[in-house]
Amino acid sequence: MGALLWRTIPDYLVLTVALYLVLKWANQARAMRIALSVLALHALSLVARQFDLVITSLLLDGAALLAVVMLVVVFQPELRRAFLRLDAALHLTRRPPPPEPVDLAIASALFSLAGSRTGALLVIVQADRIGEMTDGGVDIDSAVTSSLLETVFQKNSPLHDGAVLCDSGRLTLANVILPLTQRSGVPFYFGTRHRAAMGLAERCDAIVLAVSEERGEVTAMRGREIRGMPNQEALVAWLRKLRERNERPWTAKLLDVVRTNLRVKLSAAGIASLIWILTFTSSGTTIRTLSVPIEFLNVPPGMDIDEDAGGRLAIELRGRSWLLESASISGTVARFDLTRAKPGTIMLPITSSNLNLPPGIEIDSVTPPNLRLRITPRRPAVEAPR
């Protein structure tokens, strides 16, 4: 039972985590219905296999594969974003946080532009790389100052149309073209500038700040969060809060991971349980005979095992036919631990704990049911006469 749990629990946890990541991505990419359809088709395929409906199972697997292909084709930008986030997460080096005066300079410039009804678009780069998501750009590589930002976004400036990138506390590029959002339900008063801000914010972890020249408002975006900033102090406080959140210890971030998306996590655990039950718990009707070798572990030093005990066992396995064909049962070995064995004749019962069988396959019978074993002290080697 212990060996079975050792193999079962990690498999279940890996399946749950994988389903959670898929459902979380599908929820963010508005592909939840298609993702659930893929899982439903796979579950129905498992049910069909339980009743040995081979053709139905193949058709359902084919439909699930087509749905996966449709996910890859239709939601290619979202998949690209997910891989870029993964690439950023695998980088061990962290960007140095921008000094606090940068927040003050940015907030002062944006609200000054908002007061004069001058449009602006500013990107504060975080951990994710955004080079593959943007286009164009003119190198400026300058310190962040309020006067420089106001000059760049003046209507008579050749750089005012695009976005300005702030990376590691410096202004690096200007006149950068950002991708437009593909989301539905965008506020009707959002123009191209705000749609571009949404398009980049929803693809990476960058902070995007947009100034509307029609309304004279400053809007901050991060991920799918869109927040209007009432004044300069509120923007500085929000930027400082984000920076403090990124600088928290890993234990606090781990607690956030545990607490967030509870509904998606519970759904992933439930679907994983259903798939596991349909796959491995029900007993099958197919029986297969297998000859397995015998292996002895931890033989006491100075002891020998009777040579007649080192044969093979004939076991009959029960399970679904597809599971017996797909599982790697050819490497099954009967292992016996002889740590506490003493000289003499002993009887070892043969149970499922002695066999490394995959979940879902049961022992129907074993021949012989018990292994008779004789352990004798090792005889000293006799030297040949010279």
Structural description of this entry:
It is a single chain. With 386 residues, the protein is of the alpha+beta class. The protein folds into three domains: 2-90 and 255-281, no CATH class; 100-246, DNA integrity scanning protein, DisA, N-terminal domain (YojJ-like (1); 286-377, RNA Polymerase Alpha Subunit, Chain A, domain 2 (Beta Complex), CATH 2.170.120.30. The protein is built from eleven helices and 14 strands. The protein has helices spanning 2-28, 32-50, 54-74, 76-89, 100-115, 146-152, 192-201, 232-246, 250-259, 262-281, 321-326, and strands spanning 120-124, 135-143, 163-167, 170-177, 207-211, 218-222, 225-229, 286-297, 303-305, 312-319, 334-337, 344-349, 362-367, 370-377. The strands form three sheets. It has a seven-stranded mixed β-sheet with strand order 2-4-3-1-5-6-7, with helices on both faces. Strand 3 and strand 4 form a beta hairpin. It is elongated and about 95 Å long. The relative contact order is 0.10. Mean pLDDT is 78; it is low at 1-5.
Itemize the secondary structure elements and their pairings.
Blueprint: H1 2-28, H2 32-50, H3 54-74, H4 76-89, H5 100-115, E1 120-124, E2 135-143, H6 146-152, E3 163-167, E4 170-177, H7 192-201, E5 207-211, E6 218-222, E7 225-229, H8 232-246, H9 250-259, H10 262-281, E8 286-297, E9 303-305, E10 312-319, H11 321-326, E11 334-337, E12 344-349, E13 362-367, E14 370-377
- 3D shape: elongated
Q: CA-to-CA gap between the ends?
A: 56 Å
Order of neighbouring strands in the sheet with most strands:
2-4-3-1-5-6-7
Which percent range describes the beta-strand content? 15-25%
Query: What is the CATH domain class of the largest domain?
Result: Alpha Beta
Note the main sheet.
7 strands, mixed
Mean pLDDT: 78
Task: Quickly give the structural class.
Answer: alpha+beta
Number of domains: 3
List SSEs in N-to-C order. HHHHHEEHEEHEEEHHHEEEHEEEE
Radius of gyration: 32 Å
Helicity level, as a percent range?
A: 40-55%
* Contiguous runs where pLDDT drops below 50 for at least 5 residues: 1-5
Query: What is the overall number of helices?
Result: 11
CATH superfamily of the largest domain: DNA integrity scanning protein, DisA, N-terminal domain
